[in-house]
């Protein structure tokens, strides 16, 4: 039997190297076990020449190894030299296959674990945990004994796989070593985290290589990536070196081809190689067999850890990515600190302690950082699945705030997309804008502000503190990161948002207890454009609530689909078959990529039976839809041509983006005389720059859709605005404020071409001076020649983004509509315009 080391460190990444160097500096007997022939395998596998970042910048580095942002090769060389200089005992090509205690059995520690293989199979095993010292069995059969074990193995060896048809083909890989190895290939990088972005940038860095590089990101935002990486990615896109697909997923993979599911439908593209960088999961089987418990059964859950990184197996510690900390500086600090703890230094505070102390300084009550973190974690439902260490990182991007009774936390129509969680006390939601006395309480542990988080819209209600309260304000970025890294938090936010939407939509005196069973059985479905959730003639009784996006309703008349109506987010369908029985009477399909909440028919029927007011509301909604069906049936012969025309026009409008609009400008060309008063009025109302182009855009029959902002429900332009200059106003208008830096991202992201980049022209003489003396260019946007001639050469005119703001703040409403002499220009909400009932009034 070999000597017993004081510490055995498994894994020589940043965390393991830092821990080993601290042990060497303290003179502790130790051994660093690395399964490869080199140190820091994860960074060693970074692509050649990769720039390694040193974030968070505000965090002090606490390690016996130096680390600063720089090239991969420089970082590795520095660590190799300093590891040897520090006298670290290293054993390479030493893969640990098993860790088991050799001391006394730990009472009550027999546990069953489910071991899952990569092929999807699993088996249940029963293990008994034993106290230290620990025996580490290596792959060559040799053994190492240690009083304490520090696991710094990371998660990169257990990548998330592409589980789509063709995902196992030979041209799919999960690692990129050297981008220079690939030339003249069509390469798709799957994943919008740091690894995916850096791989894509590396492959597209040298134009001479001739690669066509595309990056696929599941969401619209790159919430888990560093800002510097996102900016570099956008710059590469703007330079034409990378194609970016957002809100997109891989549907199938075939030799030489990839099929993507995008928000606009299916896209097939040539593909010679796929680099899949979709994150990784902890090597759960190995860790659990060592006697370590996890926070939950989720595949992405992390081990249970104490504030000093100790697991449920006494003497085994976990640090680095396996603890939920992927950033290098965090890992190195943990490596240093855990060895100090093992050596008896219990007074050492984490390096982020001063930052967190400042965040909690203004809260009432004298608590330590650890006590505040535990209070927040244990009291807030969405944070319960986080470890104390994860809580520390989470709070670096969030803020804890104290509100006295009666304080307004935010007001109706305030901008904001952050999420709030109540750690103590309660708040009141003022649901009626005309009567602040009508309120709904939200208690400790719950959240509010989720509508702004999901939709990006302004606040829909005023929230005041019902009593003294402590709330955590979670930035949008931190909330998205929380949902992606903590499955329990994502489920909790989804459940609460569903509950709130149902209560708001159905009303009828319902409480959250009334809808609890409906919410519990509800499922959120992603529906791509054109996909049906209800098909005419089929059996079914489930209810579908439109969470985001929009739907269109069609009914077959004479064998042809006829457009009946348009349903925006917040609507529901499916009640007719549930209440009256029988087959579905119409088809409901997505106008754009949407999310729907599927409510089980049987559960909802039970709720209807308990709540007569809700049943009455559902019957009224059903009667209105039956009236539309009856109207179409009655008019299908006498008005068949009108019905066909209306259906075609409605379909055309949906194809032009009306399906995701909240307000759209339409021009009736039967009435339009081409005077351009609409454009001139727009320019004169907005410092000489018109926000619309009347002649541009598409026309069907007599209906023209000019180039003007649709004020989308989920604006594409907001997806990548560095100064966060794009907002939604109180009337739904999407506008750009004065902080715009002219980067042009919004213009590139808008699929409808309604944003322009331009500089404000010189101020024109007044209309009276033009009329009386002929001074200036007259009404409307001045000609470029006049602007150049009259520009002040001492003032540089920077270009900024220009788009329709619905004449927000201008008395009388949109100038384009007011200036139209014939009434040809109208601004409409699609749900009001796109309904077959307008046929009865002759409006089609």
Automatic annotation (TrEMBL):
SMART domains assigned to the protein according to its UniProt record, in alphabetical order: cNMP
Keyword field: 4Fe-4S, Electron transport, Iron, Iron-sulfur, Metal-binding, Transport
Domain Cyclic nucleotide-binding: start-end pairs: 382-500, 506-625
Protein's UniProt keywords contain Acyltransferase: no
Residues annotated as domain 4Fe-4S ferredoxin-type: 663-695, 732-760, 798-831
GO molecular function: 4 iron, 4 sulfur cluster binding; metal ion binding; oxidoreductase activity
Stored Gene3D superfamilies: 3.30.70.20, FAD/NAD(P)-binding domain, Jelly Rolls
Lipoprotein listed as a keyword: no
Superkingdom as given in the UniProt entry: Bacteria
Protein name: 4Fe-4S dicluster domain-containing protein
């Amino acid at each position: 039997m070999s000597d017993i080391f004081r510490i055995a460190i498994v894994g020589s990444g940043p965390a393991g190297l830092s821990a080993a160097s601290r042990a060497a500096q303290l003179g502790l007997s130790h051994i660093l076990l690395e399964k490869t022939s080199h140190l820091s395998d994860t960074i060693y596998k970074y692509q050649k020449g990769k720039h390694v970042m040193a974030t968070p910048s505000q965090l002090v580095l606490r390690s016996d190894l130096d680390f600063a942002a720089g090239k991969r090769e420089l970082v590795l060389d520095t660590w190799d030299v300093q590891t040897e200089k520090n006298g670290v005992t290293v054993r390479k090509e030493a893969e640990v296959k098993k860790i088991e205690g050799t001391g006394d059995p730990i009472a009550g520690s027999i546990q069953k674990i489910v071991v899952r293989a990569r092929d999807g199979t699993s088996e249940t095993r029963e293990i008994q945990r034993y106290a230290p010292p620990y025996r580490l069995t290596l792959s060559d059969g040799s053994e190492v004994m240690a009083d304490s074990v520090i696991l710094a193995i990371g998660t990169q060896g257990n990548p998330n796989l592409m589980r789509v048809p063709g995902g196992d083909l030979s041209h799919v890989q999960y690692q990129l070593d050297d981008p220079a190895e690939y030339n003249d290939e069509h390469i798709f990088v799957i994943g919008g985290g740091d690894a995916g972005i850096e791989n894509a940038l590396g492959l597209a860095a040298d134009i001479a290589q001739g690669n066509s590089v595309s990056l696929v990101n599941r969401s619209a935002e790159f919430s888990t990536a560093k800002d510097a990486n996102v900016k570099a990615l956008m710059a590469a896109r703007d330079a034409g070196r990378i194609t970016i697909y957002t809100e997109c997923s891989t549907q199938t993979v075939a030799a030489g081809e990839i099929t993507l599911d995008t928000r606009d439908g299916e896209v097939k593209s040539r593909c010679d190689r796929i680099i899949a960088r979709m994150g990784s999961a902890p090597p759960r089987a190995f860790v659990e067999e060592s006697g370590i418990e996890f926070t939950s059964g989720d595949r992405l859950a992390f081990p249970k850890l104490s504030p000093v990184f100790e697991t449920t197996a006494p003497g085994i510690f976990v640090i680095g990515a396996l603890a939920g900390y992927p950033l290098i500086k965090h890992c190195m600090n943990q490596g240093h600190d855990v060895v100090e703890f093992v050596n008896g230094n219990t007074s050492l505070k984490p390096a982020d302690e001063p930052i967190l102390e400042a965040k909690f300084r203004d809260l009432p009550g004298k608590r330590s950082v650890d006590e505040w973190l535990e209070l927040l974690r244990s009291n807030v439902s969405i944070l319960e699945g986080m470890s104390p260490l994860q809580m520390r990182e989470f709070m670096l991007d969030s803020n804890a705030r104290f509100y006295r009774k009666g304080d307004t936390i935010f007001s109706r129509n305030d901008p904001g997309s952050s999420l709030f969680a109540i750690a103590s006390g309660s708040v009141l939601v003022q649901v009626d804008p005309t009567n602040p006395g009508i309120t709904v309480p939200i208690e400790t542990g719950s959240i509010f502000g989720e509508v702004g988080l999901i939709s990006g819209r302004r606040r829909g209600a005023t929230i005041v503190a019902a009593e003294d309260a402590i709330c955590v304000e979670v930035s949008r970025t931190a909330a998205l990161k929380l949902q992606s890294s903590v499955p329990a938090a994502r489920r909790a936010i989804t459940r609460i948002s569903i509950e709130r939407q149902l209560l708001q939509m159905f009303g009828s005196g319902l409480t959250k207890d009334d809808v609890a069973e409906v919410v519990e059985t509800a499922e959120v479905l992603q529906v791509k454009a054109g996909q049906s959730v209800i098909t005419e003639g089929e059996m079914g009784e489930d209810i579908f609530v439109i969470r985001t996006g929009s739907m269109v309703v069609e009914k077959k008349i004479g064998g042809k689909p006829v457009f009946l109506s348009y349903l925006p987010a917040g609507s529901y369908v499916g009640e007719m078959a549930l209440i009256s029985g029988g087959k579905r009477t119409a088809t409901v399909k997505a106008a754009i990529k949407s999310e729907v909440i599927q409510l089980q028919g049987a559960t909802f029927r039970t709720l209807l039976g308990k709540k007569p007011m809700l049943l009455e509301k559902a019957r009224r909604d059903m009667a209105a839809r039956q009236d539309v069906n009856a109207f179409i049936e009655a008019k299908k012969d006498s008005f068949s041509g009108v019905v066909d025309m209306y259906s075609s026009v409605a379909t055309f409008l949906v194809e032009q983006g009306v399906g995701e609009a909240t307000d759209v400008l339409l021009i009736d060309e039967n009435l339009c005389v081409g005077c351009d008063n609409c454009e001139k009025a727009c320019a004169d109302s907005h410092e000489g720059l018109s926000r619309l182009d009347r002649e541009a855009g598409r026309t069907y029959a007599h209906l023209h859709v000019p180039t003007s902002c649709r004020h989308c429900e989920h604006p594409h332009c907001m997806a990548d605005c560095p100064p966060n200059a794009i907002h939604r106003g109180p009337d739904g208008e999407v506008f750009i404020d004065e902080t715009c830096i002219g980067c042009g991202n919004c213009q590139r992201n808008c699929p409808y071409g309604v944003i322009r980049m331009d500089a404000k022209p010189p101020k024109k003489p007044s209309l009276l001076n033009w009329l009386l003396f002929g001074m200036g260019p007259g009404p409307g946007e001045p000609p470029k020649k006049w602007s150049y001639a009259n520009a002040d050469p001492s003032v540089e005119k920077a270009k900024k983004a220009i788009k329709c703001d619905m004449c927000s703040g201008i008395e009388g409403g949109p100038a384009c509509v007011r200036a139209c002499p014939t009434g040809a220009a109208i601004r409409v909400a699609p749900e009001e315009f796109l309904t077959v009932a307008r046929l009865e009034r002759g409006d089609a």
